[in-house]
Structure prediction request, 386 residues.
Amino acid sequence: MRLGVLKEPQGENRVSIVPSSIKKLNKSGFQVQVESGAGELSHHSDSEYLDSGGEICNRSTAMTADIIISISMPETSSLSAGQIVACVADPFRKPERVKSAIESGITLLSMDMIPRRLSRAQAMDVNSSQDNLAGYKAVLLGAAHVPRGIPMMTTSAGTVRPCKFVIMGSGVAGLQAIATAKRLGAVVYASDVRRSAAEQIESVGGRFIEVDGMDDFEDESGYAKPLTPEFIQKVNDTVCHVASDADVIITTARIFGRPAPITVPSSAVSNFKPGSVVVDMNADVGGNCELTKAGDVYTTENGVTIVGTKNLAGQLSTTASMLFSNNMTNFVTTLVCEGKIEIDMEDDVLVGAPEGHDFYVQGMGGVLLCSDGSIHPKQSRLSGVL
Prediction:
């Protein structure tokens, strides 16, 4: 079995498989072929891959492998029917990728569809591993841009009060952001639409922001459900009021398969104090702050710095690649049965469907896709694989 590891496109510093994973892949029967230079931006040289038991090849060779591993979805026009691609396809926001895969006759395994609630799937969950790092990096970006020291300091020249951080959302990224800000010495407030999150927020040192009428808006897969416009407005008003005197505001709200909801409207930014910083963790999918400019950092007329840096996990390319590689290795090795790659349609990791999302398979060796796509659904309901 040949496994191809691709060099990511410009703007992506991570690599999907690192040298330390190759031994486990070899043991499972994979011949690992790595595109030359794939690991450079995550600080892994071609020689490291060779020393670990991998092979270095050009892109054309890697693209002929039985299973192709990458972070970004590669071009599919040059692939052959029956090949497998495992990547982060982001199918709901980019349905054209699914259409392209269907036209090429390949099997597309979208790693962002892994059902995180299954204990066995947690070691394969690329969303959690990368979001965790993104939450950490968001706090560091906020600390780098705020014109104040973070912790309380008692000096002969006077006492410096700690910074106030407000973390909007407490999923994987939010909890890591809370914990990181707390370790830096900040006073941290955090919100979430899931009532169950209050205990988690407090366990990592945050103070839960209560919103009147709050219910547990969480679906079966652990993601926040879409909210009514009225409740969204209520949450925004409450949390933005708490954030009006904050030094750093970090937004984390991300709804699976949908544009990021606006949690910080422009009217709220106008009430934030000069020198405060908004770090928008979802700039790449529309942004939570109405004034975010994707990929840009700028200061508003009233002195609020808005950080729209994209791909925060990619800013930590060495660590992020290692974790992503572990996730991918744990996943693809489970596909091996008697020396062959087999998609087991009874495997809960592959077919566990989160509430509210229907997916279907179009024939064995075909592509799994969303039921509201342009291709008519057939056969089985699925979710872990796209």
In short: The chain has two domains: 2-124+317-370, 131-311. The two ends are 22 Å apart (CA to CA). Residues 228 and 368 are 30 Å apart (CA to CA). The longest helix spans residues 126-145.
